[in-house]
Amino acid sequence: MAAIFQKLISYVEDIKERNHSSGAALVIIKDNEIVLEHYSGYHSNAADSLPIHENSQFNVASVRKSYLGLAVAYALYEGKITSLDDLASQYFEEFDKELLAKTTIRHLVTHSHGLHQSEDGTIFREFAPGEGWAYRGINILMMTKLIDKLYGKSFPELLEERVFRPLGVKETHWCTEPSKQLVQVIHHPDEPASYKLGRTKDGTESNLHTSARELALWGNLHLNNGSINGKQIVPKEVIQLATQVQNPTYKNKDLPQNGLFWYVQDSLAKRSELGERVPKGSYQILGITGPTLVVIPAYNLVVAKMYNKRYNYGGDNYLHYLREFSNQVADTYLR
């Protein structure tokens, strides 16, 4: 079995070396069984660093958006958010209504809102809602705070109660303290790696850590529409809200397509972060420190990959490398 994965393993290892990541992990779930676990390298670039192992917990950066997306899907399913097409001004009274204009919840969860925030905290508009696509942080903060307001608890607390405990998750945490299980993040290969920790566990910071195994399990929960081992942990409709195309119809057909923050493969688009060989209906989430989670329902397949180097795939070719990993995954099971 391992022989069919060798090309993918070699690709992961090659990128690890080229990007100066000190460690890598790769977990593949096929037909609800783990068929491959690959771990290599070390927790940091320090000489005495621990080797990467099955319980190593990586900072997953923007992969956390898929967790927020599930919380938003719950809010929609339970009527706390009436519709994706509700005006944002209904929920964010503290924002300038003229600035929000016709921005909807749909725009906020598909990166099509057009809002941006300067270093001094000023929020401004880059483009009209629904008329473009830009990967910004303001919408993530807005939706994180909205879930807190709607449920009276943070989205990590909501997921702990609704998903993590029933799923048996033990290695997925918003971390505020160092631990020997945590993999440090490399910002520059000539500088010591450091822990990416937050001041809080409320989801407002990029301090989510998880193991490659549990990231793959997160993907497998979505693949199975919220059911694991015959037990329905998350309502099917919640998963579908999160992972089906939800963005507005763009005039520019090159723009990526999104579910609730997930990248979704629908019609091929030049700016998609999923490769052109990945089947329709697949979805992916990724982060700046190198993690990628790819779910391919057509192949009943989930692949989780981890690195610990910030700004992987830097330069003009970053989009090629983001797409190519999912292409390599698809090639492994090309039918």
Description:
A hairpin with a 4-residue loop joins strand 12 and strand 13. This protein starts with 5 loop residues before the first helix and ends with a helix. The model has no long low-confidence stretch (mean pLDDT 95). The protein is an alpha+beta fold and 335 residues long. The strands form four sheets. The chain has a six-stranded antiparallel β-sheet, sandwiched between helices. A three-stranded antiparallel β-sheet has the order 3-7-6. A two-stranded antiparallel sheet has the order 4-5. It is 29% helix and 16% strand. Helix 2 crosses helix 8. It has a single domain, classed as DD-peptidase/beta-lactamase superfamily (Beta-lactamase, 3-Layer(aba) Sandwich).
Give the secondary structure arrangement, pairings included:
Blueprint: H1 6-18, E1 23-30, E2 33-41, E3 57-59, H2 64-77, H3 97-100, H4 105-109, E4 115-117, E5 123-125, H5 138-151, H6 155-167, E6 173-174, E7 208-211, H7 212-223, E8 227-228, E9 231-232, H8 236-243, E10 263-264, E11 283-286, E12 292-296, E13 301-307, H9 318-332
Antiparallel strand pairs: 1-2, 1-13, 3-7, 4-5, 6-7, 8-9, 10-11, 11-12, 12-13
Helix pairs in contact: 1-9, 2-5, 2-6, 2-8
Main sheet: strand order: 2-1-13-12-11-10
Rg over alpha carbons: 19 Å
Strand content: 15-25%
The CATH class designation is Alpha Beta
Mean pLDDT: 95
Fourth-level CATH superfamily: DD-peptidase/beta-lactamase superfamily
Number of domains: 1
Which topology does CATH recognise?
Answer: Beta-lactamase
Known CATH architecture: 3-Layer(aba) Sandwich
